[in-house]
Write a structure and sequence with these properties.
Arc Repressor Mutant, subunit A; seven-stranded mixed β-sheet; about 300 residues; D-Maltodextrin-Binding Protein, domain 2; two-stranded antiparallel ribbon; 10 helices; alpha/beta
Length: about 300
């Protein structure tokens, strides 16, 4: 057999994305180049690695075994690079993360000092919704995920980082009283929801279902920034995490509407698969988070006390 590390990397990326196009994008290659190398890699084996049904690509059981071995090879390559640079006192390698979109406001405070200290570390981060973040963890394509609602499966380990509080939010122009409204106010408002798979949407739906509120008027948008813009434009109201609306609150573009039973509280957590063998970079980042957590929370999120 004469396959190359490049072909192994391309095949592994295809198994992770289940798409030649997406694999090409993430590897910064052209689609034809990925297809050619994938074909050459397949020629080394008598048993099919992939199957194409319709327009979808599927990984065979044999292909999954090869992908698992390929992942182990690249972990060893990363360890080799780490040992080489560690002799020079340098940490090197890739840190792979997924985070829900609102969690970016949390993650950046933990990443910034770590990346400044370790300039040879390469960061790969997928900013997405809760469903996709958990899926990347299940597929073992990331080292850590940042979410605020723990998944039922898979079994994970975690570090609690910061309290997450979600309030009913309206635009800054309309007048509301300062005493809490009944929960039934939500029945009279046009509510703006995140898309299915979003943790914020799950919190909203749980609150509505738990209080047996009949909500009829609603819109659906696919990012927290879009929801913020819609609320500021007076298109409706939403239950949103405090973490992502600091500037808008301070500038009077948004306001918190006091409602009985709100805010809903949960916790921003860094999670990873139980029993996962971390790379040297991932281990160093986890140690950094645990060691610096209290300092980072105090310096970056002290303003929480105002709300």
């Amino acid at each position: 057999m004469h396959y190359t590390l490049n072909q192994l990397q391309i095949f592994l990326k295809v198994t992770q994305t289940l798409s030649v196009t997406k694999a090409a994008e993430e590897l910064h290659l052209t689609q034809p180049a990925v297809s050619i190398q994938l074909r050459k890699f397949q020629e080394q084996f008598d048993i099919p690695l992939t199957e194409v049904v319709g327009r979808r690509i599927y990984i065979t059981d044999f292909g999954k075994e090869i992908a698992q071995l390929a992942d182990g090879i690249f972990q060893q390559v990363a360890a080799l690079n780490y040992k080489t640079h560690s002799q020079k006192g340098q940490l090197t390698g890739r840190l792979k993360l997924s985070t829900v979109s609102t969690g970016m406001s949390v993650m950046t405070f933990f990443l910034s000092p770590f990346l400044k200290q370790h300039k040879r570390v390469e960061l790969i981060m997928d900013v997405t919704n809760r469903g996709t973040a958990i899926e990347s963890l299940e597929h073992n394509t990331v080292d850590f995920s940042l979410i605020s609602i723990l998944p039922s499966v898979p079994v994970v380990e975690k570090v609690d980082l910061l309290e997450n509080r979600l309030f009913l939010i309206g635009n800054g122009k309309e007048k509301f009283k300062k005493t809490p409204y009944s929960k039934h106010i939500l029945r009279d408002l046009r509510l703006i929801f995140r898309e299915k798979g979003s943790g914020t949407r799950q919190v909203m739906e749980d609150f509505i279902d738990r209080n047996r509120l009949d909500v009829v008027q609603k819109l659906e948008l696919t990012s927290n920034d879009a929801v913020k813009q819609a609320v500021m434009a007076d298109l409706g109201y939403s239950i949103m995490p405090l973490i992502g609306i600091k500037n808008e609150l301070q500038n009077g573009l948004l306001q918190i509407i006091p409602v009985q039973g709100l805010p809903v509280k949960n916790v921003w957590r860094l999670i990873w698969l139980k029993g996962k063998r971390h790379s040297p970079v991932a281990s160093a980042f986890l140690q950094h988070v645990k060691r610096e957590k209290e300092k980072i929370v105090q310096e970056g999120f002290g303003w929480f006390g105002d709300y």
